[in-house]
Design goal:
The complex is a heterodimer of chains A (491) and B (100). Chain A has 491 residues and is of the alpha+beta class. Chain A has three domains: 174 residues, Four Helix Bundle (Hemerythrin (Met), subunit A) (Up-down Bundle); 143 residues, no CATH class; 115 residues, no CATH class. Helices cover 52% and strands 17% of the residues of chain A. In chain B, α1 runs antiparallel to α2. Chain B has three helices and no strands. The chains are: A alpha+beta (491), B mainly alpha (100). At the A-B interface, α1, α2 and α12 of A face α1, α2 and α3 of B.
Chain lengths: 491, 100
């Protein structure tokens, strides 16, 4: 059957059908992205913390913008080539479009990866550091367990995921029987528990015979349940010390001898805590939240918790000095400007700015600044030997000191993923959805590129119309990015 | 609608020029983001104005909205109305927040 109006216009709309279809689809896309853009406005205007600016790497976004614009131009060229019936030329332009889409996505992949491997830590006093964590252990709680207590009703086998040496370990119940706390074993325990509860209910209702029969079944089939004590707990002894490396968010609380998993896991470990510290190399220090609650001049930067946790205390001290060295003149200039403003506006109450940007420093920049000053200074003194020694000393850390922060002082910790704050949540939602559109567009245009020859030979105008429709979608994807780029990267 | 091959050939030059303009305006967007115009609001407004202009170029020239059939415009009028309405709902929520 011939599909009507693929090339000729329908009399009532004046258009071939696919064109109306794509515009209706684009209308729904406008509503989709429109909703997200208005969410962005809402989140940004309603944020009660300084909205992150200059956090994304502009070169990534900039290059991607250029790539999408070029691909938009190429897709029109491809369409024109088809209209002119120049198949080879069409193939060249369309190949470039698909290539641009692929480069865009690869670029985006690098950008996302950098965010997912970069970490943010807020301490209990609201001082914030960001940096890199080098291993899973550095962001986990490490516990050597001798026994594990599981719960009949709420427990499950998931805790085994974090047991490093699980292949070498056997679990023994108090009565000496060996138990394998697998998924199937827990499922049996839960089934048995339900049946036992039903038997209890039957006994309470006076149906002793049915209750006894059910209990018999429980004892026969679900004997695993018998090992549990009256409160539904079972303490399993490990044949050798089990080394657990557990993500912080899976742990409810811990002491030196005991660790409780979250309620969803309902499991407890007894043994010895090895480490409950977060180890990272920091590259940014942000004291804005720490200082915002009071007058910053009265709150000492040195009192911020982070300065207690440098692996090398001297390095921490040095950073503190550099930080103050960087901040003091800026604070003084700010105060001067405020005084000037007050003098110019007598009688008007001054509303203090809530955040000073200079209370947040990128350690690379700070290091460069201070290092440059050092160089000038020591060159003036002609003390090259000392300078070389200092250089060698500093090159060890590259201005990225290591810190070890006890987890009990960590208020919040996350990579720069969607859970970090609303900025990253909306950033990943919108750019991720846009990325999916680029991927979808790449598939469709790639199909037209590699599988379009047959239709072109049969009905070239139909093929040109298909490319026009695909192109309209592609321009829309470009159009969305034209807004995404400035609002996330530049504003 | 640019249907005949001759007409389309004529449009090629326009497409190239618009592409160049879009690239240039991308540079301008980045450049003006480095300039402090006094307040974030002014900077954001300028940035969005440039973005809107670029989007306008894409829509008008690449998507052929400068010479389309009335049917398409009718669809778009509805879209703009509802998209603006959606935006307005959020702004109303900001103006009259629920406070506990």
């Amino acid at each position: 059957m011939e599909i009507p109006h693929t090339v000729t216009a329908r009399p009532d709309t004046g258009l071939w059908n696919a064109k109306v279809g794509i515009w209706l689809f684009l209308a729904s896309e406008v509503m989709l992205f429109g909703g997200l853009f208005s969410s962005y406005v809402f989140l940004r205007l309603g944020a009660d913390y300084p909205w992150p600016r200059d956090e994304l790497q502009v070169p990534f976004g900039f290059v991607n913008t250029l790539i999408l614009i070029l691909s938009s131009v190429f897709v029109v060229y491809a369409w024109v080539a088809l209209k002119m019936r120049q198949w080879n030329r069409y193939r060249v332009w369309m190949s470039l479009v698909v290539l641009c889409a692929a480069v865009f996505l690869v670029n985006k992949g690098f950008e996302y990866k950098a965010k997912f491997t970069h970490y943010h830590v807020t301490l209990k006093d609201d001082s914030i550091v960001s940096g890199h964590i080098h291993s899973r252990e550095d962001k986990s709680i490490i516990f050597n367990a001798d026994s594990v207590t599981v719960d009949a009703a709420g427990g499950n086998h998931v805790f085994l995921k974090w047991l490093e040496n699980k292949d070498d370990i056997r679990f023994t119940a108090p009565d000496g029987t060996e138990v394998e706390p697998s998924r199937a074993w827990f499922a049996d325990v839960k089934r048995g528990l339900k049946k036992r509860q039903k038997a209890d209910q039957l006994a309470a209702d006076g149906d002793d015979a049915a209750s006894a029969k059910l209990m018999e079944e429980v004892n026969d089939k679900y004997s695993a349940l018998n090992a549990f004590d009256d409160s539904g707990q079972l303490k399993l002894t490990l044949s050798q010390t089990g080394r657990f490396v557990i993500p912080r968010h899976k742990v409810l609380s811990w002491t030196d001898e005991q660790l409780d998993f979250t309620r969803a896991l309902a499991t407890k470990l007894d043994g010895k805590l090895v480490s409950a510290t977060l180890k990272m190399q920091i590259d940014e220090l942000d004291l804005r939240e720490y200082l915002r609650h009071d007058d910053p001049r009265e709150k000492a930067v040195a009192d911020a918790l982070i300065f207690d946790h440098f692996d090398d205390a001297a390095e921490g001290q040095q950073l503190l000095e550099d930080f103050n060295h960087y901040r003091d003149p800026k604070l003084a200039a700010h105060e001067e400007a405020v005084a000037e403003w007050k003098a110019k506006h007598p009688g008007v109450e001054y509303e203090p700015e809530p955040f000073y940007d200079f209370e947040r420093v990128y350690l690379d920049k700070l290091h460069e600044e201070v290092h440059a000053e050092d160089e000038t200074h020591s060159n003036a003194e002609g003390d090259h030997e000392q300078q070389a020694a200092a250089g060698a000393d500093e090159s060890g850390s590259h201005g990225h000191p290591s810190v070890s922060i006890p987890f009990e002082e960590v208020e919040f910790f996350s990579n720069f993923g969607p859970r970090k704050n609303t900025f990253y949540a909306i950033y990943f939602t919108m750019t991720g959805l846009h990325g999916l559109h680029v991927f979808g567009g790449m598939l469709v245009l790639g199909y037209f590129l590699f599988r379009g020859r047959k239709l072109y030979l049969k009905n070239p105008e139909h093929m040109a119309n298909r490319v026009e429709v695909g192109g309209l979608f592609w321009h829309f994807v470009d159009l969305v990015w034209i807004f995404l780029f400035p609002i996330f990267y530049l504003m | 609608m640019a249907d005949s091959p001759e007409e389309i050939q004529k449009h090629m030059k326009a497409y190239t020029l618009v592409g160049l303009a879009l690239l240039v305006f991308t540079f301008i967007t980045v450049a003006v983001s480095w300039v402090d115009f006094g307040s974030t609001t002014i900077n954001v407004t300028i940035g969005l104005a440039i973005a809107t202009f670029k989007a306008g170029l894409v829509a008008a020239i690449f998507m052929h909205l400068n010479h389309e059939r009335p049917m398409i415009y009718r669809i778009l009028v509805f879209t703009c109305f509802f998209a603006a309405g959606g935006m307005l709902l959020f702004i109303l929520a900001l103006k009259d927040p629920i406070t506990l």
